[in-house]
Amino acid sequence: MAKHYDLERLGYQKEDILLMVHADDAGLSCSENAATIEALETGIVNSYSIMVPCPWFWDMAHFAKHHPQYDCGIHLTLTCEWKQYKFGPVLPYSEVPSLVDNQGFFHAKREQVKKLAKPQEVKKELQAQIVRALAAGIKPTHLDSHMYTLGLSNELLAVYRELGREYQLPIFLSDQLLREVDNPDSLQEGDNVVNAVHIGNFKAMESTGLDELYTQQLKNLKAGFNVILIHPAFDNMEMKQVCVDHPNFGSQWRQMDFDFFTDPNTASLLKERNIKPITWREIQKISL
């Protein structure tokens, strides 16, 4: 069966509360890149991952190449959920026709990927994304999955595992996220999973903002490997246009993520609870 990482091999104690604050979606836009970089340099964000097919990939790849001290993964991408901001595969869409709509862009919804995507085309495209990242000088610490599409089915999970083995990189697996994409009980013997994953939610964002929710999450963290998934960006004109008619994980949400995780009071809360940072770079040592 799947198991939690053996963190004692890294010198941690069973009672240690370990936290990764991970920024998804770098490369999505200029705003996303700028906020991610500032959050890494001035906040408590200690991990991020890059979307290779997006127009602003090269900007973030340049940063990653010249700042290898930061934990950096490849955010394997099979969907484009935005209404008017579109991107598609790294490969010519004629080579991976099951991954695109009739205009050659990635499908907007996970359900379309689950129904239409052929696993062999998924692997071919994701290999191309990894190869492009490596060629850009990125030295990835892990692989993860945009919108957790690689958790949608056992066939997609098999591709995810294969990529991790082939490139000798840990993959982000979570039984919580697998339940959220309606694929429970799909983990296998040998899979390593994080202890707990925390994300903001739209109801809280709309009503009181995300500060209170994140504060409670930090106060209630339990021992083990915890991940808070955030999506920092600035609520500027560019990001508003990217997020047209998409308030869930929209520009306002992303600004709240940036604000909370660069606030000195948040860093103080971690110190008060003796919460220790952990990164995929450390996890590499015990996962391969």
Please provide a written account of the structure.
- With 288 residues, this protein is of the alpha/beta class.
- It has a single domain (3-287), classed as Alpha-Beta Barrel (TIM Barrel), CATH 3.20.20.
- It is built from twelve helices and nine strands.
- Strands 2, 3, 4, 5, 7, 8 and 9 form a seven-stranded parallel beta sheet that branches. It has a two-stranded parallel sheet with strand order 1-6.
- Helix 2 (57-66) links the parallel strand 3 and strand 4.
- Helix 4 runs parallel beside helix 5.
- The model has no long low-confidence stretch (mean pLDDT 97).
The separation of the N and C termini measures 17 Å
Radius of gyration, in angstroms, nearest whole number: 18 Å
- At the fold tier of CATH, the topology name is TIM Barrel
Helix fraction by DSSP (H/I, runs of at least 4):
40-55%
Features:
alpha/beta, 288 residues, two-stranded parallel ribbon, seven-stranded parallel beta sheet, 40% helix, globular, TIM Barrel
Question: In summary, what is this structure?
Answer:
Helix content is 40%, strand content 14%.
Give the secondary structure arrangement, pairings included:
Layout: E1 3-4, E2 17-26, H1 30-42, E3 47-50, H2 57-66, E4 71-76, H3 110-116, H4 119-135, E5 142-145, H5 154-166, H6 175-180, E6 192-193, E7 196-199, H7 202-207, H8 211-219, E8 224-230, H9 237-242, H10 251-261, H11 264-273, E9 276-277, H12 280-287
Parallel strand pairs: 1-6, 2-3, 2-8, 2-9, 3-4, 4-5, 7-8
Helix pairs in contact: 4-5
